[in-house]
Queue: 4 jobs
Job 1
Amino acid sequence: MRYYMLLSPSHRALCGEPSALLNTTRHCLRRDTYATSILWGKETLAASNFAVMTRYSDNTGELVAVKKLQPNKQSTLEDFKKEVKTLSVLHCDYIVKYRGVCYSTGRLSMSLVMEYLPNGSLIGYMESNQHVTPRRMLLLLLRSGMEYLQSLRYVHRDLAARNILVASESLVKIADFGLTKVIPCDKEYYRVTQPGESPIFWYAPESINESRFSHKSDVWSFGVVLHELFCYCDTNSNPKRLCMQEIGHNVQSPSISMQLANILKNNWRLPAPPNCPPKVYNLMMQCWVYNFEGAACFSDLGNQIETIMQDERETLRADKKLWHIAV
Ligand SMILES: Nc1ncnc2c1ncn2[C@@H]1O[C@H](COP(=O)(O)OP(=O)(O)O)[C@@H](O)[C@H]1O
Ligand SMILES: [Mg+2]
């Protein structure tokens, strides 16, 4: 078979042949990071505080998600560069895959190119798939991603259902490394000194009180993700909503974190989701131990999850046996 370069998909993509490609915005990719394509806008995925996700395709290769730093938000450029750098060094099946960076003409804006996961985040997926129960599988896979991050001394700092992407019923991936930090080698934690917005309703008390982040504070947030998962990401049971119900809606912004720290100190925790097995709620409570030194670690949690799953399988088998005897 002969190879005609001019007809090759990647050549057409490089030349930007309009009929062969999808229309709208054109971006130039840094050659060293994202090889042969020029990206063309296809559809907007989701807007967020500083980035817009756009789905691109050169009609021949894989679809990619592009997270774009909005040009008027110059103050976050450094943070965005850090996010790009962090994702570029992570190689794990349970973490969204980095594909490269791309700049608009004149380098006025910069974008992060990632693999595209058509199911989006856990939030939308769980809301619209209440009939399926992929939760047990999700738990294990999520744990594997977190153990990998921990092995590299990373603290994610924004672990929440909105930042977990769904590849399939049996595979989820951690995303959004905008707040991620590396714990210094001589320390057990990272102390944040820069001001900025924080997802406090997912935070451990030591993070709210002392801006101290460690694997244990990620474990706390992991417990909150479990809670979201077992509530099927129902907006009425959203962690922020439940915490604000307890704090009182009349409390104003600067004192919300103080009030939140107070209720946690007084041992208030998110209530058990409806129909949540007691063993799973117990797991959440182990993530939410006030004194972080006594909190569970990711490998403990993983072992316990495996035991719970094993028990469930055995109960199911026993039930089936009983049923056979009965009929
Ligand atoms: N790779 C991806 N594939 C599909 N959807 C994605 C992808 N990355 C992000 N999204 C969607 O965009 C939303 C926001 O992305 P995220 O990286 O969390 O941005 P932000 O930093 O603004 O929170 C996610 O909750 C998800 O719905
Ligand atoms: Mg996010």
Job 2
Amino acid sequence: MINVQKVLSNSELFSGLSVNSLSRVEGRLKPASFARNVVICREGDDGDSMYIIVSGLVTVSSDMGWGQRELARKGPGEVFGEMALISNDVRSATVRAVEDTECLELDRAGFDDLLDGDPALAQRIAKIMTRRFSTLVHRTSTELLGAYRALTFALANLTESRDPETGAHLERTRHYCVLLAELLSEDDRYRDQITDEFIDGLFQAAPLHDIGKVAIPDAILFKPGGLIEGEFERMKSHTSIGATMMERVIRQSGADLFRIAYKICLYHHERWDGTGYPTGIAGTDIPLEARIMAIADVYDALRSRRVYKDSIDESASIDLLKGGIGTQFDPEIAAVMIEHIGRFEEIYLTYQDEKTGGA
Ligand SMILES: [Fe+2]
Ligand SMILES: [Fe+2]
């Protein structure tokens, strides 16, 4: 003999209700038996009942696009099918009996009657729904953000397969950029622009700076020695090609990350004095993200051993940075980098790999 009140008071949905409320629920329940392997609810069907498991075991699974994924197993005292009933929507999952399973079924009419007559039950359901919804939103947004970041870095690593530049270079430059941005943000003049979102976007977007190189032919990209005029022009187009790629992404997703990536791709070879490429803009017309990227990229190229040159040591690299102040680099950003050069060196030494390559 099933002790229905005990089953109800052990279930998430009905625990904590008064004896009167439980009796009212009990009066509406009907026994339902399902043999092993029977599908009790099917994803996409109308949800017109919920079930409380008295004995047995069920699996809850969902179609992920690539196949069924088991989300949960439920046993005695647990409830399923309530989401569709509460939200008046179709089933969001398929429930199958793993063993012969005994349930108590509550249909829509009974459920609506109970809700109308029992504010405590209505309140309890509202609490459960809020808790589930916020857990779901948190989990979904964390998963999405992780996937989005991993995909962005995987995309950036495409340049590694098309260019001798290394993954370690991408790691180092993103860390130099963040450090520069953090140091600059201590200055009142930058505080409004360099927010936490700006820094996070810069960290995610920096590895995409040379993504346009995927479209440069091997004969140019891997050519030993100098490039001739037409080849150099073609090589320079990696900036606008990368920007066009980012523009397409922005059309699909307005995320700030890609707006920052667009500016970095297009302007990271511009120079403070206006003699850079591809547009020749100068000074603060060059977006801050790109001015930061430009010096981070050059510093790493100086310090790294490449196929055509040895590594340039720290003090010679500083001299070269100083030589570029006001011509190649934003004087304020260069000054901050030189002042804290030890911290950039730490990053350089932290992220190393076996491969070395060209800028
Ligand atoms: Fe570049
Ligand atoms: Fe680079």
Job 3
Amino acid sequence: MKKAVGRVLSSSGEYHWDRVEITLYKNERVYRGEYLYVEVDGKRVFLQVEINPIKRPTSSYDEKLTRDGLVNRDEEREVWKASCWQVGYEEDGTIQPYLFPIPPLCEVYRPEPRELENFLTPLEPSITVGRIYPTDAPLKLGLKTLVRQGLLDCGGEGTGKTTLLLTILMALMEQTPRDQPIHVMVIDWDGEFNVPELVDAAKKKGGYLRLEAPMRFKKELKITPKEFYERVRRYLGLAPNSREARKLNAVLMRMRDQAIDWNRETYLNLISQIDDPAVESKLREQVDIIFPPQSEEGWDIRELVQENALVHLDFSNAENWDEIILTSRDALDICYHEARTNPRFGVIVVIDEVHNFAPQNIYEAPASKEAYESMVPVMKLLATTGPRNKIPLFVATQRLSEVEKVVSTQMGQNIFAFRVEDIDLERLRGIMGDIASAVRMLPRGHALFKGHAVKVRTPIISVIDKLAEPASVHKDLLSAWRRG
Ligand SMILES: Nc1ncnc2c1ncn2[C@@H]1O[C@H](COP(=O)(O)OP(=O)(O)OP(=O)(O)O)[C@@H](O)[C@H]1O
Ligand SMILES: [Mg+2]
């Protein structure tokens, strides 16, 4: 039988539809973020606890008595309250607001875990990534929504970000229908994803391929002159009205709409036609940024993605950050182009510590300015138009405030927020709303989820299922010494 935890009762005496104040029965407790419900007009209207204070009127002499050690706690004088926001009621699989005031003295109930699960879980096929705190009800995310919008996973050091990415990867491999192919590319800068469970799961799902740095990708692409121009501009960070951009454009205009090869040779050939030696030599000097030496040969990343459930780009052996950034840029750019032009191609891109790939301030990130000037536009393009073009980003970061702004705000449709540093809280608030402050209290493995992949737009406190351990866990300094 359902049991009430309290009743709607407002201390001001006014009753609204969106804000609901509850007085709890004696010995009942509710926690911040918890979902409760009332029954009005035959509808089950859900509420979410925002704050849960105890009220006890303070008398003028209380302070003095307390100072002198003359008072004891008298629980009879205490009233436990909960101030809630309305979440809404369910109708045909969507959540609707109840637009009339929630009347005084309605009884307030706590849903059974099963009822909570039904209320939050979308009707579309979903994957389970954790539990709805503090129940054992699963937190399920709509798969279709997730791959159409992408995901941002942020939190301070050691809070569980990589574990969450792993859980999501495992869920994609193991929980999706058998006849549903999955294609993921993990850009792994420090080898965190060398996880045996993940490798096994990917093999079962359709194939696992790991490439180790140094790696090169074939770039034999035919693109329009206009696209050629845009790419060069993007890679070199040229403004449209710069001399270089205008001269290059003039040469490309002569090609009309004829498709041309996107490679080093074509580039060098084109710039040799520029009638300004200074511009020509400047563009020639930068050829390595666009086409790293020998980049003509190498892997066909499109093929690898299509032939495998998981392509793992492991950069733990990379010489330096420029290599990581420029190689990742190639892989992303090739996949983006393929996803746009080939109706059967698409890939989920997973990047951990994404502030190293799309930094807000390129001077404070590990690769060179030149490398970022060519990478950041690609990341922005992916963040803004990737999901709609079948190439969504699933990214994690420890430093939300250091992620390029377009990237972080575009990724805000599905967010997991673990505990973050105060400096990152501001950015999180901008994306998530005031509720973000609640994450300051979360222990490891606990995150606030807010997004379109569940039925409600209110946040959900969740405990992430740990399905595998990130590879770095046993690579800390003290363990290394112990082994030595
Ligand atoms: N949901 C969870 N349940 C249990 N343990 C967890 C959970 N999430 C993380 N942990 C543990 O916490 C530690 C740190 O996890 P993880 O490496 O995922 O955090 P991170 O935020 O990626 O850290 P870093 O900032 O070092 O990248 C690991 O030992 C991991 O096993
Ligand atoms: Mg990590």
Job 4
Amino acid sequence: MYVVLRQIRVLVVAAAGLSGSLAMAADANHGSDLAKRWCATCHVVNSEQKQASTDAPPFAVIARKSDFTPEKIAFFLLDPHPKMPSFPLGRSEAADLAAYIGSLRK
Ligand code: HEC
């Protein structure tokens, strides 16, 4: 388990170090699945979900922020802040989640 976690760390660091457009080839449908699996305990991730367990902002609210960009969210997810647990997110998963959140922007 420990070794696996270390490998994930290395991967995340490597991913964060890569430049280029994270939003490219992102799959919002996959992002939606990931959001339901990993994020829905704390965030309201879609309009069907009625409530989450914390005061974390719903994804639709995050998407509507004036400074929202999928790139920012993807980078944010590769280096989550302390209130959020770290996820074993790869670069493409972060991009897919970001694309999904972006798709909620109306
Ligand atoms: C354990 C609860 C928890 C889980 C699970 C969680 N989050 Fe969060 N998230 C939070 C909280 C709490 C905040 C608000 C933090 C703050 O305001 O400082 C937040 C904030 C955010 C933000 C806002 C950043 C900003 O700039 O406003 C994004 C984006 C986000 N989460 C995405 C995700 C994604 C994607 C997942 C699933 C991979 C996820 N979160 C899973 C608790 C969680």
